Fold these 2 entries.
Entry 1:
Amino acid sequence: MENPIRQQEDNDHYFQVVDTAYRAESVRILLPEKSYLQELLDEPIPLQTRIAHLIPYVEPTAEVYNARAIANYIGATQNWVMSTARAIGLSDDTHKPSDAYPPLALALMEEEWAWAQSYEDLNDQLAPNAVSKFIARHVDWVEQTANELAVFPTLTQLGSGKIKRTYPKELIKQLRHIILVVPPADDWMTIGEIAAVTGKNKKTVKKIIESSMTEFEERRSHRGGHLARHYPLSAFDLVVRVIENARPPAGDWLTIRALSLRTGKSEKWVEDILRVRFAELSERRLDDAHVERTHYPPEVLDFLESLVEQYGERDGWMTVASISKLLGKEDDWVVKRINEQFLEERRTLFDSSGKTATHYPETVVNALRAELEVINSYPDAGSYLALSALAKVIGRSKLWVTNRIPYTGIEGEMRIDQSRRVFLYYPPEIVDKITSLPENVLSLKLPTQDQ
C-alpha cells in the first residue's frame, strides 16, 4: 500500500497530505514553522546526557577497554565499535584500535549495539502500541510526540487483512533521539512536583519561582518520559523559605468575597460598609491557596449579619424607584400620592444594590396601580384644549375664558395628556363659540339646556 504521507515544498512553506480516515480523501494542511521537538532532532546528543540516561541501569566502574575488547564482548565488529564511538562522542578520528575508551564506554556500546540489532529486526510499519513497547514510553506520549514531529499514522493493511493505524519504522529513531538529547529530570522538579511536596497550589509555587527569576531546563519527566519544564533544588528550597516566612494563615478571618457569600450581599455592599467602619481592622493574610489577600476579623461578619437581620428581606416591598418603573410613572407622581395617602406605610430595608432605602408594601403598589387604571380609562386629549391652552389660543386670560364658557353651551370632558395626567378639556369648536359671543354676554341670562 502506498504511503499516503508525503511532504512537498511550496512557496517556502511545507504542506502535509494526510489520510484522515480509511478511504477518505487526502486533505492539504499547512504546517507551521518547525516545532520545538523538530528542532531537537537537529541537535547532537551530548555524551554526558547519554551517560545520565544510562547511569540508573549500570554499576559505576573505572575499568576501561579498547575497541577490540568491546567488540569481542558485545559481538560486534571492531569497525562498528570505532565508528559508533566517534558518532556518539567517545572518541575522535585520531583514536587507534589499541587505545582505551573512557569508563562506561563498554556499557554505552553494549546499549547501542543491542538497540541497533533490535531496530534492525523491526517491521517497516509499526502500530502505536508496538512503538510504545519498543521505546518504553506510554502510547499517548508516542502519538503526541509523533504529531509534534509531523509524523502521522497511515492506514496499513496487515497480513491478516485488518486495517490498522501504523507509523513508519524511522519514527523510532526520532523518538529515541528526542529521549536522549534531553537530560533526565534527576533531582530537578516541576512546579507540580514542588506544589505536591509543599502542599501548596501550583499558582502560588509558580508565582514564587518566577518572581525569583530562577532558571529552568526542559528535561525528561520521571513519569511517562514527556518533556517538561524542570527547576533545580534551589527553587524548591526557595519556595519552602517563602512559605515559612510568609504572613499568618487566614484562620477564621474572611475576605470581602467570603463576607459577601456568607451574608448573601454583593461585594460592593460589603466594601462600602467596610470602607467606612472597619478599614483599620483589615490585615494581609494567606488564604487556603496560600495567596496573600486582605482579610477581616470574625466580628466584622457578626456586624454584617446583624445588619442583614435588622433590615431583613424585602418580601414584596418596593422602593419608589421600583414602583415608578413598574407603573411607568415618574418618581414625583408616585411620591406625591404616597405622601397624600400612604405616609405611615413604609419600612427601611435593603434595596437591590444592598443599600438601605425606604420601601412600601404591596398594598400601596396595588392602590397606585388601581388609580392608574382609572386614569388610563380616560380618552387621550387629542385635539381637545385645556383651559390654559384655550386662553392662549383666544388671547385672553383664563378667568375671561372661564366666565364665557357657560354661554357656549359646551361642557368640558375629563381627558389625559401625553404625560398621562387627567385634566378638563374642551372640544376645538369652543374657540369659535367663545369668540362669536357679544361683548355684553356676561350681562345676559345664561342659556338653559332647552334653549
Entry 2:
Amino acid sequence: MIILLEKGVWLFWSAAEVALVLLVRAWLSRLEGGRGASRTATVLGVAFLLLLAALVFGWEDLFWTRLARRWAPAPMIFDWALWNFGVTLWVALELVILVYIVRLFGLLRGEVATPGRLKSLRWGAVALAAGSYALWLAYVLGLVAVVRDHGLGEDQIENISRFYIKICGALWILIESACAVYAVRAYRLLARAS
C-alpha cells in the first residue's frame, strides 16, 4: 500500500510540474501574440503523463521480471533508478519552466519576440531537459557498472542513490529560487506599469 501511495505522489508531482510548464508556455504564447494554450502541447503533455503512469506502475514487471534478472547485479538498482528518474524529471521540468519565465520577463520588459529567438528558446528548453536525462542515464549505467565491478551491497546502493536525490534536490531549490526571483521582478514591473 505504501509503495502505491509513493508512486501516486511521484506521478501527482510530475503532473503538477507538467501543468506548470503548459501554463507558463500558454502565457508566453499569449504575450507573443499567439492564441494561448496550444492543443498540440496539451496533448503531448497528457500523453507524456500517461506514459509516465505506465512506466511508474509497470516498472517492476517491465524491468525487473523481464530485463533486470538477466544483467542487473542488484534488483534494487531499478527501484532507485525509477526514483532518480523522477527527481531528474522534476529538475528538467523546472529548468524548462525557468527558461519560459525568463522569456516572459523579457517580453514584459518590452523585448521584441522574433521567430529566431522563439525557435532558440524552444530548442534551449529541449536541450536542457535532454541534457538532464543524459546525465541520469550516465549515472544509472555508472552505478550498475560500479555495483557489478565492486560488489556493492544494498546499503551502499541506497546511500549513493540518496546522494543523487540530494544533489537533484539542491538543483531544484536553486532553479525554483531563480523562478521566484523572476516572478518578483515581473510583479514589480507590472505594479509600476499599472
